[in-house]
Amino acid sequence: MADTAASIQPGMPAPTARLRDADGAEVELARCWSERPALIFFLRHFGCALCRDHVHRIRESYPAIRARGGEAVAVTFAEWHAAAHFAQTNRLPFSILADPTRQAYLAFGLTEGHIAEAFNPEALLRQVALALRGTIPYITSLPATGQRGGVFIVDQSGIVRFAHIATPIYNYPTIEQYLAVFDQLGT
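^ that's the sequence the OP posted. Answer follows.
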């Protein structure tokens, strides 16, 4: 279970951090929500079929997010050049930011869980099902990790309006839930 005491909750100011974009340039995370509310998706790691499936769902829903005045961004703890490759390979129409020191992950309360969570029967079955549908794990040089993933929606004033830590690792909200938050924000 995630350390919810340190987790960012709706109504709290969103933390910010300096990350790298897909070109290697240093950027402030707060720029993601400076012009429009932003959905920030923190991937567990590139090899997680569950994360890949969810980022594909966000990709497919990106026009609907934009139509509601929102933005989307993915965050990974890989180096910027690996993030750029992932974005290109997965045809992401939105930005991906690299956080190799995991400072943004920790600021949002996304701690390391137990690596065993990735090997529980339900998680394994879901990953196998995704692999059979073509969501093949991305093999990387990243170490095995229990890094938690999560999703946050931050409004233009920097206030978190939606917060979700993926516990268990396959527990992600629906796209409809995200769109409903953007609808409520009425941008």
